[in-house]
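Q: For a teaching handout, I want to show students what a protein-ligand complex looks like in token form. Below are the inputs, and the small molecule is zinc ion. Please produce the holo structure.
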Amino acid sequence: MPTLETSRTKTGQVFQPPEGLRILTLGGLGEIGMNCMVLEYQDEILVIDCGLLFSDLEHFGVEFVIPDFSYLVERKEKIKGMIFTHGHEDHVGALAFALKAGIRAPIYASTFTTLLIRERLKEHGLESACEIRTFKMRDTLKFKHFTVKTESVNHSIVDSAALFIQTPVGNVVHTGDFKMDAQPFYGQELDRRAFGAFGDQGVLLLMSDSTNVERHTHSLSESVIYQKFEQLFAAAEGLTVVSMFASNVARMGQVFEVAKKLDKKIALSGRSMEQNVRLGMDAGYLKDAHAQIISLADLDDYPRNKVIVLSTGSQGEWRSSLARIAHDEHPYVKLQEGDLVMMSSKFIPGNEKAIGRMINDLFKQGAEVLYEAIHDIHTSGHATQPELREMIELVRPKYFIPIHGEYRHLVHHAKLARDTGMTDEQVLIAVNGDVIEVSADRCEIVDHIDEPRVLIEGREGNDVSKLVLKDRRQLGEKGVVFALMVRNRDSRRIISGPEIIVKGLVNESIEGWLIEEAGALAKKIINKYDQQIARREPVMDLQEEVRVELRRFFNANIGNKPVVLPIILDV
Ligand SMILES: [Zn+2]
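A: Here is the structure, written as tokens, with zinc ion included.
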């Protein structure tokens, strides 16, 4: 893990206990993802959200990015609670790593968020590391200096909360991710009166979601999707496959309800889809879904147009359920002419190419493919300009800090706040690592922590230093070899691979031979590893062994040591 140096200030001073309220964001300001905020007053710290950022550096072996927890680890006895606004990965995904770093504090989350957190911690063997306390909306969480009231908001995941936080220096509102949806599929519209009433008490600081600030028209209601689903499902002549984020329980709920109306069955494809449907039912949503679900293996027992397959893989992820369908590698779902694939989710920037390839492959299977760019089958979970303006006007804060957004989103949101009449002094744009001090008459950046992030390699969660990454970039110019292996999460055996991919290494005439020989060598190492597992002997570090041996191989054969990146994908 990172050294403790990183929590020192630029000038090398170790922080003194703050006089006012200290706010430090370890992620989520200047980027979309990895949301994590520290609220500190004297001897008490609350952490709001602890998320990860999916990496655009996968080719360098970096799977995702998490906050650097050094600041918190050094003050871990002060941490009295970790509060989660909702269950999206960019809000809860780094919690296991915080616990691995030694942070211990009660976890507070809403019902569905709690279920997701428990599931995730179980995967890391950390389910009993901290007490998990489930809150309901409008509950009050009392701490020594802070009193936190939870308030329901609309978002693309159920049980999302905003936080009204009373502090010794004044009231603070943290919106979490939100939108104002007049007709959410589950729950009520965000209660403007509650925000207004907290505003009446006087709010010192508002921190509000900036993700969709560039959109000018009011966001579409989640229920708009219902009619679209109804039209499309009713007209379907063949099999219908709907992909979406597995966390979007309200979207799933609509698929179930429309399917029921049209007397269609639902088959679930993808591990996280099965898991989240179960968790959704546990949280009290998706009522009667049990009766509608059929096994994928029984697909052929029903007329093709009487089944809807709910699938993961809306971002074109390699090995996801939808990708396997697109490549005709799915064990049960085989597309044909007349089938319909609906991608009911946003294309996350950075994933467009992979998604585009997958859409092409789905068309090649003969299916009709609908997606956001050509059809209204998705609506965002984030507030647009009119809603964001309304939030500021309801809460009427003395100070405003835009959060959850890339830098340009923060700038636009700050401008929007000034358009409502706030002055330059009242609006603060901060980025990750900025230390903000807030008291009754000031809100300003007083210090900065450099690079509060850690790059995580592989599911095992090893961190990658920036230097290593730089090496990889440089050496990448000389040539890179990837050795991809797929491992069964339970048995630990390698079930597919190695697939050797070389980039920029040698000319094409000998590339085939090199790949073949390198593959055979890696296969030998895998066999040895498999035998060790079968005999229950201590197992080698497979990644390291493959790396070292392949480097040796390339050096002996082409006189060049490329960067070798063995990647193990656990499924
Ligand atoms: Zn979210």
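A: Two things your students might notice: The longest strand covers residues 494-503. The radius of gyration is 25 Å.
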